[in-house]
Amino acid sequence: MAASPRQLPYAPTPYSYLPNPALSAKINLDEEVKLSTTAAERDLYDSLAEIYSIIITLDGLEKAYIRDSILESEYTELCSRLLNQYKSILRDDSVSREFVDLDTFKSRWNIECPRASERLRVNLPATIAEPSATNVGPSNNASQPRTSATGSQILLATENFITFLDALRLNMLSKDSLHPLLSEVIQSVNQVTATDFDNRGKIISWLIRLNGMKATEELGEDEARQLTFDMEGAYAGFKATLS
After folding, report:
1. Is the separation of the CB atoms in 99 and 105 below 8 Å?
2. Residue 237: in which H helix or E strand, if any?
3. Which of 49, 84, 163, 238 is the most buried (most CB within 10 A)?
4. Looking at residue 23, what DSSP letter applies?
5. What percent of the chain has pLDDT over 90?
6. What CA dihedral angle connects 190, 193, 198 and 199, to 10 degrees?
7. pTM of the model
8. Is residue 51 a contact partner of residue 105, using CB atoms and an 8 Å limit?
9. CB atoms inside a 10 Å sphere around CB 154
């Protein structure tokens, strides 16, 4: 009796595919897959990987700060370093073009990190952007905390306010001129008082506004007038906390 034909181990279909060894590509599974073919491309991918790492790390740092798992001084140092690294990497035009913006980058690589996103938007550590109670001394008036700042700290904050207002009067309206000066204002103010004085929030709002601009971009005439008005109000509010 003739032997029955060998049964296939699967149910054949009209679309079944039987590989042909003669046509199979020879692939070395141990060979490294290269994402780039030039040094410039490699540098670009390395920079984008650094940005990704900074965002993830910063989000973890923000969580640790919220949970009081890290000292304020350590948080401030680490956060400032990450923010500076982030800005430094994006100064490269090729990286900036590929990055586009934070929302685009996060969507492309499927990451959320809301705390890191907020910190990058503000561009200041939470210990600087928000009043710190570490500078508040004993108070004779429960509704008005008294500052324990030294005379030199008060003088520095006053000088920083005046310097910033002078820059506006001299028509220095670009981001790279104003943002560093305004950062010095809020940092020195926080060394003096934790009181949420009139228009203090305007300082943070303008820092965020300036941070969203390109380095050479300038404020318009109306914006400059509004900024001057807000900072004069903040300076008056700051001086009121010292009386």
Report:
1. yes
2. helix 221-242
3. 238
4. T
5. 59
6. -10
7. 0.69
8. yes
9. 19
